[in-house]
Amino acid sequence: MSKNNIKVALIGNPNTGKTSLFNQLTGLNQKVGNYPGVTVDKKEGKSKLSATQNAIITDLPGTYSINPTSLDESIVLKTLLKKDIKESPDVILVVADVENLKRNLLLFSQIKDLEIPTVLAINMVDQMHKKGISIDLTALKEELNTEVVLISARKNQGIDKVKEAIIKCHVAAKATPMCDNNKIDPEYFEKLKAINPNFSLYELWLMVTQKNFPEGITKVQKEQLLSFNKDVSKLKKYQHKETIYRYQEINKILKKTYLVNKNAATDVRSRLDKIFTHKIFGYIIFLLVLLLIFQSIFDWSSVPMDFIDGAFANLSDFAKSNLPAGVFTDLIVEGIIPGIGGVLIFIPQIAILFMFIAILEETGYMSRVVFLMDKIMRRFGMNGKSIIPLISGTACAIPAIMATRTISSWKERLITILVVPFTTCSARLPVYAILIALIIPNKKILGFYNLQAFTLLMLYALGFLSAILAAYILQKTLKIKSSSFFVVEMPNYKIPSFKNVFLEVIEKTKAFVFEAGKIILALSIILWFLASNGPESFKNAEKNTIENIENKQLNKADLQQKIASAKLENSYIGIMGKTIEPAIKPLGYDWKIGIALITSFAAREVFVGTLATIYSVASDDEDTSTIKQKMRSEINPETGKKRFNFPVGMSLLVFYAFAMQCMATLAIVKRETKTWKWPLIQLFGMALLAYISSLITYQILS
Prior knowledge:
Blueprint: E1 6-12, H1 18-26, E2 30-34, E3 41-48, E4 54-59, H2 71-81, E5 91-97, H3 101-112, E6 118-123, H4 128-131, E7 133-135, H5 137-144, E8 147-150, H6 159-172, H7 186-193, H8 201-210, H9 219-227, H10 232-257, E9 258-260, H11 269-276, H12 281-299, H13 302-322, H14 327-344, H15 347-363, H16 365-378, H17 387-392, H18 397-402, H19 410-419, H20 428-439, E10 444-445, E11 449-450, H21 451-477, H22 498-532, H23 536-539, H24 541-547, H25 556-569, H26 572-584, H27 591-599, H28 606-618, H29 627-633, H30 646-658, H31 663-673, H32 677-701
Parallel strand pairs: 1-4, 1-5, 5-6, 6-8
Antiparallel strand pairs: 2-3, 3-4, 7-9, 10-11
Helix pairs in contact: 3-10, 5-10, 12-15, 12-21, 13-14, 14-22, 14-28, 15-22, 19-21, 20-21, 20-30, 21-30, 22-28, 24-25, 26-27, 27-28, 30-32, 31-32
């Protein structure tokens, strides 16, 4: 990237359309990383401002104030206080919602007082007429003494003006504070300003209140700043006065420039809220939305899934036919291709799930669900904010657990962290999808609803109900005193932005595929090696099989199949599977499924890829079957019936519904709780629950 790129920090309150503006400015030129030392996502993108000027846009976490109350908000403060040339922003782009301009301007006034060149983008101007809002833009620019642009990020209106304003603001390279803290106590703030004139007065004030000291502050100056912190009562009094003073200034400005005529408004939000948050109809609508999602996951994904499944089977055939026979070809055909195919086959279903989650968030409906569920969650030791991690846990437990940072009560936060892994994440979806396809008939119930989709919905419901029940038990057993309040903001209803949804699906699906793909590819190679090598019994397997009297009557194809199975059984991986087989046999599993259970403790989605690799090594077919066909044709030698019958399939579904099989999640729980106690309780507690539940399921059904 060019050294002449303008560094722009994008900041705003939640639900102001900040993400939409970021997507419009950067498009697909985005990358996601982490802020140094923390696991919070850092989104950056490159934007072409003009023919000669580019910008690097950093999307900072949403915040209501520059004074942090959570880890996400502390990232904003640390970024804006940096004074080193590489990290500090050249221009700050503040996004505000046209309907909540007064509240948004509180954050803007704080940013402005940092004396960094600032642009104000007022979003959702396409809603101004419906809300009866009018703005005197020229007067507002003069009052705020900054560049102000009216935009509709969702409709791609005013984006060019934002780019022009960034360039203009950067060229001018000047900024003046909006509020003067000297009015609170002139003597106090004059002494504060004298400590280091290289920082603005408000930056020094933030160092005092937040005890956050950037580079450029010497040890002596730090001690001087800390001395201002000794009188806590005065500090709180001045912080309170500062907020009142800011709102007084904002009110003066808005009286001159901002007018709301409620008689001219044509808003339908309140009428929709009465329906979506109704104490009866609200829950019915939410259930219908979930039914639609799971129906779509099965109906819409079947064609692309079958195409991917067949394509990898054909790719294996092609590699087997065209590559020279040998160890390398066996690795590709039996290890790498089946392993990768076991991940990619589920892209359609995972993409559809992420698409619906993105749409629910974009429309504003997700906030209504949070409000609706608060009454239920409080009975089980959590609050409405807990539903956000539980719902986002359907995508991945890792960001869901990190999302608990917004919960102020430690007890409620800990309970939420411990129960989130019960919710059905996207890593379970491949296991559920393949097993449901094997044991549940593809037929309609009530004439229109897919039975397989209904089964998937029931598994999601089982996960959620398990989380609720576990939370109730933890509420009664954890002896932690705490209290909290629940506050949720209801954003306006919006038509989803196709671009935002598309980018969200691409980003989340790509992250899933690459993260899961790395694990599965590595494990596929290891599994292939362990399945293709073994001790002395492995080396003699072919000879012993041929010499067996029963096998002498077999044709060549059947004999080769017997040899391949005997080799696998005597390989290193076969010995591992045979070792644990007595423990898992009561669940209906054989040693091959046992191997998949062991490997999937790293990540659940590895289960399907493991079986694909094992069955590829065990098979000596000339024509490679698809993953589904391999599992469907697997026979239990003791009964002569299908291995994956209804009792075994249901037992596996129940096992994966409860088992904690994700090392990354355990690592995040350890980081968030700062102890190994809770992740180990999760691991062994959920494993025991999974074993007992699947044992009961198999014994009842068989």
